[in-house]
Structure formats: C-alpha cells, structure tokens
Design goal:
It contains 18 helices and 22 strands. It is α/β, with parallel strands linked by helices.
C-alpha cells in the first residue's frame, strides 16, 4: 500500500549522536515511519493519495515535545489582558487602564503574566496599582500560576474580607489590621475569587484552545506532557480529536491535591490509560510546595522574609503514602517541587515506595529550582526524571541576583539555580518544557534558553552559564528524553522505521545554529501521526 506521506530532499537528524542519517527521504503510513531511503526509491512508493513534500534540504528531527505545559487551562487563563511584557508598574497600570476602558461598567477584568518584580522591593498588593482598578472587579494571575491579585471590588463580590484557613498551604494575604491586600497565594485562596467571576462557555474554551494549539503546532511542537486535567480539559481534547482539529499529542496527568481520600486516589488510578488516539491520561500531578517568588516554596532554611518554610501538603507523610499507593498501582507521579526541602522529600518518598518492591515506575520531579549538591546524584540513582523549565531562569531571574527570586533565596542558594547541566552530568534524564502559560511555549526558545541562559534581552549576562546545556543535550531534552519519561522510547523520540511519524522540520540544523539565533530558526513543517499540522509557505 502507498504511504500517506513522503518527505524528499531532507536532512534527517539523529538525536542520539547529533549526526545526519545516511538517508534523504522518509515515508509514513498509518501514523508510523515505514521507510527511510533515498529520494528516487521513496518517490516511487507514492500513490495518488500520497502527500509528497520536497523539503529542499531542510532538517527533519523527531517531533518536539514540551515536557510540562497546561494547554486547556492555559488557553482559558490567557483569555485576559497579557501583562507578561510589563517591566514596571507604570506599564502594568497603562495596560490595565486600556483594558478597563474597553469594558462595560461592572464587567470583570482578567489579566495574566504579572511579574512580581514590577513591584520592586515592595509587597505585592492591589494598592500599588493605584486608582486604575477603582470600582472594577479584577483578577490578575501572577506569572507563576500559583497566585493572583484581586481588586477591592473583586474581593467584595467574592465575600473575601479577611484571612481563612485551608487544607493546603494557601493564604489570603492580609495587612496588620486583618484586611486583605488583594494577594492570594495558591489555588485554594485564588478559587474563592475565581468562583465569583464569570466563566467562559465550553464553546469559548474549546475555540480558544484550538487557536492556541494551532499556534503551538506552528512552532514545531508535536506533543506535550499536560500537567493538569482541570475543568473540562479532557472533554476539550476529546471534542477536538473528534472533529479532527487536535494538532498535538498529549499525555495528561490529573491533579492529586492535599485532602484526597482513598476514593479520590482510586479514581485517579481508574482514569489511567483512558483517552483517545492522540491523548490519554498517564500519570498523576502532585504538589510538594508553591513558589519561591510567593514565599510558598518549601526550603530547608527560610527565605530572607522568613517565608517558604512549609510543605504544600500540611502532612508531608500523607503525600508519601499517596506516592506509595500510586507506585504500587504502576502509576507514575509528577511532583511540583521547587525548593530544596520539597525536592528532598519527594525523592525520599519515591525511595521508600521503591523499597516496597514491584515493577519500576518512572516518577518525575517538576521544576527543581534550587537544590544542594547531595541531592543532585539521587535523581539518576532512583531513576527519577528531572523536568526543567530553563526559560523560567532566563525570564524571571537575573545574573546579578537583583530579582525577587534571588533576593529571597540569598546568594548561596540563588547560585545553585536550575542545575540542568549538573543533573545531566550526574546521569539524570533531563526533560525540557515551558510550563506554558508561565513562560512562552515555542520549543526553539526553550532549547535556546537551556543553551544560553539569558533573558529576552540577549545583551544581558547569563544566569549560571555553567549550567547551560550543549546543543545536542538541549535537542535530546525535547525529543528523546520526553519519550523516555513517558515510557515510549520504543516508539517515539527517534527517526526510525516503526516509530511514530511525529516530525519537526527546520530551515537549518539546530545543532549548528548559534545559541542566540536558535529561537528565530524558521519552522517549515510540523507532522503529527503522519499528518501535516503546520506547513510554511516556503514549502
């Protein structure tokens, strides 16, 4: 039978060795690579229904996979005004004023991507925004996705007028007189105001998600490890796949929060393996702490404000019990752990679960922003994946440690930031991702950040250049290693007969492009399941 797709005049890049394969053409059928050979041989296989594309010497790599992102919840979160480009309070106020002027009186204003660094050394609070939100119900997500800033009117509508207690390490931040400042830390606190705000319809969320996924495909992404199943996420994936408009492949990990009882854990286990052809539930996402910028991480020593001293789970031992239960059920966990104490507890819990025996399970730790030397080799020893987001380091910290994250940690801990290279050289499987919408999703930008460790202004110095990955390591971090973390190395992450026909085609070899130029490298073609999901005009 004729192939569905034939690519000719190609340079095929092997992420194992960094060398070009001795072939110039590739054919695929029924979602799998069926042939590697020369142009003449594979052109002859094409039939009337075959899509044949002359790549004109472009470079084909295995499809890029984002190791940590939030496709549907991120699509909904980013329906408001984008504040991620605002570098000071004046810019934030101007963006909010412009948005408020376009809204009818009483309409909620939503924003996202607010960087706490715009507040300088002052506390994050609604009062700092001035009168721009007077009388306007507004809820602004901070960049880390773990906190929000609510206006006085939004707090009033939500009935939030003082501190509350939560099952998780969440907080309504209040002043010395017990009045909310507007800053809400972690989901349980944020959800109090979220519940009072109007929600987009399912159709609106589906349309926005489809728009976002098309944009992702245009950047070369063929798949992602989706780190939540919040809201109607699973229904959105199913609906998009049913109408043929799901352009990426997703592995979805629903959340397990503190307070989850035996029935909740059993339901998470039951969900495993459910899904469609291009998406399925695989794994469980958990949280061991919050963020350093908010003072909700779990550190072995407090930060400069005396904060970040507690686990997200009020009873960390209960977290370990849930990990052990999921391990026995062969369910991999992906745990958000940013601070050194959080990472250590996750690894301790995995080690205890492994000591009970049973088949190996590929657990993961997400983020790993600061860890001491003795923690680094434990990842390889325990077979735990290190899931890293290098652009968090690039965009939200500074080499001179004047940023909020670094000031909170102090010189010693800020100097061991995002230890991608140390973890790699210690034998850990390092997976790269964006954590979108926390940081931009284009995978070439993620790879570039892992290589140069600089912010968007490339004239600024790198933060921790000794932790930069090599070009080949960065490529593996977004191809081979995500496949391994998912237990799919036998069918994904390589250009090999029998492997998935998930492909990214670039104008040049990413291993030869300068670090500072990589993010702008043109993506010419993206293929998922042997079907083009993005095709540049040049082809």
């Amino acid at each position: 039978m004729s192939p569905d797709l034939v690519l000719l005049s190609a340079r095929l890049l092997d992420p194992d060795t960094g060398a070009l394969l001795p072939h110039t053409a590739l054919a695929a059928r029924s979602g799998r690579i069926t042939h590697l050979g020369d142009d003449r041989e594979l052109r002859a296989l094409a039939g009337p229904a075959t899509t044949v594309i002359d790549l004109k010497n472009a470079v084909v790599t295995p499809g890029f996979t984002d190791g940590h992102l939030h496709p549907v919840s991120g699509a909904e979160r980013t329906m408001g005004v984008d504040l991620s480009g605002c570098r000071d309070l004046a810019a934030v106020r101007a963006a909010l004023a412009g948005q408020a002027a376009r809204l009818a009186p009483g309409t909620w204003l939503r924003g996202w991507g607010l960087d706490p660094n715009v507040f300088g050394g002052e506390p994050v609070g609604a009062a700092a925004l001035g009168p721009v939100l007077d009388g306007v119900p507004a809820l602004l997500d901070l960049f880390d996705g773990h906190s929000a800033l609510a206006s006085a009117r939004a707090l009033e509508l939500a009935g939030v007028d003082g501190p509350r207690s939560f099952e998780q390490a969440a907080e309504i931040v209040c002043d010395s007189e017990g009045r909310p400042t507007g800053l809400l830390l972690e989901d349980a606190a944020c959800e109090l105001v979220e519940a009072a705000a109007p929600k987009p319809t399912e159709a609106e969320v589906r349309a926005r998600t489809a728009e976002v996924l098309r944009a992702m495909a245009a950047t070369g992404l063929t798949g992602g490890h989706a780190m939540d199943a919040n809201g109607a996420s699973l229904a959105v994936y199913a609906a998009l796949e049913a109408d043929g408009t799901l352009p990426l492949r997703f592995r979805v990990a629903p959340w397990c929060q503190p307070g989850a009882d035996a029935d909740a854990v059993a339901e998470l286990i039951r969900l495993q393996g459910t899904g469609g052809r291009l998406w399925r539930v695989a794994g469980v996402k958990m949280f061991m702490d919050g963020t350093i910028d908010n003072g909700t991480a779990w550190l072995e020593r407090p930060d400069c404000h005396g904060e970040s001293t507690h686990a997200f789970w009020p009873d960390p031992e209960r977290y370990g019990q849930v990990v052990a239960e999921l391990h026995r059920a062969q369910v991999p966990t992906a745990t958000h752990a940013i601070g050194d104490a959080a990472v250590r507890h996750v690894l301790d819990s995995v080690e205890k679960a492994q000591a009970e025996g049973g088949a190996p399970v590929r657990h993961r730790v997400e983020h790993i922003e600061t860890v001491p030397d003795d923690t680094v080799p434990r990842f390889a020893r325990l077979g735990v994946t290190a899931s890293m987001q290098p652009t968090h380091c690039c965009e939200y910290t500074r080499a001179d440690h004047t940023d909020n994250w670094s000031r909170r940690l102090g010189e010693e801990r800020a100097s061991r930031a995002f230890r991608c290279r140390d973890l790699w050289e210690a034998g850990a499987r390092v997976v790269l991702g964006s954590d979108w919408p926390i940081a931009p999703f284009p995978p070439l930008g993620v790879m570039a950040g892992a290589r140069h460790r600089r912010p968007g202004d490339l004239s600024l110095p790198p933060h921790g250049p000794d932790q930069a990955l090599t070009p080949l390591q960065a490529l593996r971090g977004i191809t081979l290693n995500p496949a391994w973390a998912a237990g799919e190395e036998h069918e994904a992450g390589r250009l090999a007969v029998g492997h998935r026909a998930d492909l990214t085609v670039l104008a040049d070899n990413p291993l030869d492009v300068a670090d500072e130029d990589l993010a702008a490298l043109p993506v010419l073609l993206t293929v998922v399941e042997g079907r083009p999901t993005h095709r540049a005009a040049a082809l």
